[in-house]
Every structure is written in structure tokens, then in C-alpha cells.
Amino acid sequence: MSVVVTCEHFFDGVTMHGARRVTYENGAIVAIEPFDGIPDHHVISPGFVDIQMNGFEQWDVARSSALELRDLGNRLQKLGTTTWLGTITTAPLDSLSRSITTIDTGVARDEIPGCVGIHVEGPFLGAAPGAHNPSWIIPVDKGWIQQLPANVRLVTLAAEQDDVVAGISLLREKGVAVSIGHSRPNVDQWKLAREAGATLVTHLFNGMSGIHHREEGLALMALNDRDVFTGLIGDLVHVSPEAVLLAFTVKGDGRLCLVSDTVGWSSSWAQKRDIEIRDGSPRLPNGTLAGSSTSLAECVRRVVTLAGVPLEQALRAATSAPADAIGLSNVGRLAVGQQADFVALDNLLYVTRTWSRLVSLRG
User: Which Pfam families match (predicted)?
Assistant: First the structure.
């Protein structure tokens, strides 16, 4: 049976178009045509793609069971995030391995809605640990990297790690995208990491050396590198509206990826660490930011309405750019033949409905 959805503005993942009629059958788009009439929705966009999502509300990705991860996926879909990487952060290797096994099994069995893999953030970090436990940060372990399963799609490590080139090379051989984060590298270390195959930077401006007119910082090097993808937490707490606008001005042509960096702020893990939401974001008792409580859809809305980012750029940063960054060709864009995986936004840019794919997007 055919289903028709109409909108005043249609974003295909790259470009914003005028009014369109979208027809889908059996979960796949069969027609996208101009529309003249009263539309059902203000904006239609591809479902949002979040490549850094540690949890949400009571769910903590690293410590959740398969059933809990399924419930988390269903919750995220209602919020507009239809594709995501379960992100786990610095911990002892055996603990990380257990988390990876749980998520990997759930993804392989198609049991976690929207989850297409794992982002391992740490433990091979550097001089800007942020909320990561410094006692768990260790040198690159090539043996541990070698045994990572195929559903690990992204690893964040620091460019100043002694064995970083070998580690990056091994990850790339396994088809894993590599991001530089929690790092304060010098220029040579940055260049070596890039040459070895690192193609992303984790949460621009946060957990890194910054921008100075006489010093090279990681943020400056990333912004000046036309080819590198940069993640950016869009809650406007981690990064000021002015810095967000700067990042989009420089990288908004398809190399900027909005991320939520949400955590399970009401989970037992957060309670044990005395994490609570203060001044708009989860924080450790000493005030250190410990992730976000802002969904990716809300990040899109905030960067547009409060930071002045053009809607087309903000939507691109939440759809096709993150998909491209981790090598997913079947999400983040809307075209005939693609799966019906999209969201509707009202004129205030709140998500009003989500259409989620009907089959797995692994591979």
C-alpha cells in the first residue's frame, strides 16, 4: 500500500527544496514530486544520525542490557534520531569489552532500533581527559584493537599517544573510522595522525587545545583542514553560540557533524558518580561537564534559533555529514529507492513525527 506525505520544505540530506509530495511503499521511497496544496508538515528531513550518544534519561549505553538498549532505541526514534552509534567511554579494557559484546550482539541480531554500531571513545586518550577517569587512560593496545568486532565503527584516541600511528593504521585496516579527541597534539603529531588515516575530530572545542593567534591548537588545526570531519556538541552549553556559528561558517559545507553527546543522567551510573544536571547539562560534583542531556533534534533547533546557523546547514550536520563520516551510504539522505527513514518538523523546528526504516542498515 502506498503512503503519501506532503511538506512545505523538503530537505534531501544536502539541499533544501520547496514543497514536495513523498510517496513510499513497503518501507521504501518510490516518488518525490513537487506539491501544490496545503501540506501535512512544515519540514521533512532524513532521520537524524548521532555518532556520539552515550545514553539518555535512565539508559546508559555502556551498562545496559540488550532489552534496555532496545528501549533506548525506541525512545531515540521518537525524538527523531533514527541512526546512532552506541558510545562507550574510557574504562578498563575488560569492562569495555563486555559493553562492546552486548552492543555488538544486539546490532548483529537487529534487536536495537536505529543502532548501527559502536563508538569507542577512549581509553587511548591524551592531555585533555575532561570527564574521563585519568587512571583508566592507557597507551594504545594493538592486541586489543585487533580483536574488535566489525560493528565497532568509530574509535576516538589522542594524537599524542606514542604508538598512535600503528593504532590508527590497524583500525583503518579493520574498516574503523578514527577520530582525534581529548588531545593536545603539536602540529607534527596531528599531521602524522592524519596521514595514518584519522578523518574526524571528536567534539570540536571540547577536550582539546583550542584557537590562539600564535599557537597551534587541535581546534584550529581541525578547522583549517578542509577534509577532516568535526563533531560538535550542539546543546549551546558545551560550546557558545558564537563558536558554534564560527564552526558552521568554516565547516558547514558537509564536514561538520552535530552530535548530542547525551548520557544517562538519571541512570545508576550517574547516581554513583554524583552526576546531576546543573546550568543546562549533566556535571560532575566539581562542575566538569559530563556529557549532555539534549537530544540531537533539540541541538538542531538550538543552533538554528539561538546561534543563527542556516537550517539547511544544521540539518546537513545532523544527517548526511555524520553518515558520510562513518561511511554509511544508506542513511542521512532521501531519494527514490532509499528507505523511508525521515522526520517531520513544525515551524518551530520541533519533531512532530518520525518514520523509521523497516529493515536493518548494517553493512
Answer: Amidohydro_1 (PF01979)
Contacts of 312 (CB under 8 A, 6+ apart): 11, 15, 16
Instruction: Kindly state whether residues 24 and 149 are assigned to the same domain.
Output: no
Q: Give yes or no for a contact between 121 and 128, defined as CB atoms under 8 angstroms apart.
A: no
Q: Which domain holds residue 140?
A: 48-331
Domain count, the chain: 2
Q: With 90 as the cut, is the pLDDT of residue 357 above it?
A: no
* Rounded CA separation 24/22 (Å): 7
Per the structure block, which three cell numbers stand in for 211? 584557537
Residue 117, by phi and psi: left (phi above 0), alpha (psi -120 to 50) or beta?
A: left
331 with 47: CB under 8 angstroms? Answer: yes
CA of residue 361 relative to chain centroid, distance: 16
The pLDDT tens digits of the residues spanning 165-186 come to: 999 999 999 999 999 999 999 9
Q: How distant is the alpha carbon of residue 101 from its chain centre?
A: 20
For residue 176, give the nearest of 197, 153, 195, 151 by alpha carbon. Answer: 153
Cell 513497503 -> residue: 26
* Cis amide leading into 285 (omega within 30): no
User: What CATH number is given to the structural domain containing 67?
Assistant: 3.20.20.140
Burial code (b: 16+ CB inside 10 Å, e: under 16) for 30-47 equals eebeebeeebbbbbbbbb
**Based on the domain organization, do 193 and 313 belong to the same domain?**
yes
Which ranges of the chain does DSSP label H, i.e. alpha helix?
A: 66-78, 93-108, 142-146, 164-173, 187-196, 218-224, 241-251, 268-272, 296-305, 311-317, 320-325
- Classify residue 87 by burial, with Cβ atoms within 10 Å: 0-12, 13-18, 19+: buried
The sign of the torsion formed by the CA atoms of 293, 295, 296, 297 equals negative
Q: Is the pLDDT of residue 356 over 90?
A: no
> What does the pLDDT average to over 137-164?
97
Q: What is the sign, positive or negative, of the torsion defined by CA atoms of 250, 171, 50, 273?
A: negative
Q: What is the per-residue pLDDT across 282-305, written as a single tens digit (0 to 9) for each?
A: 999 999 988 999 999 999 999 999
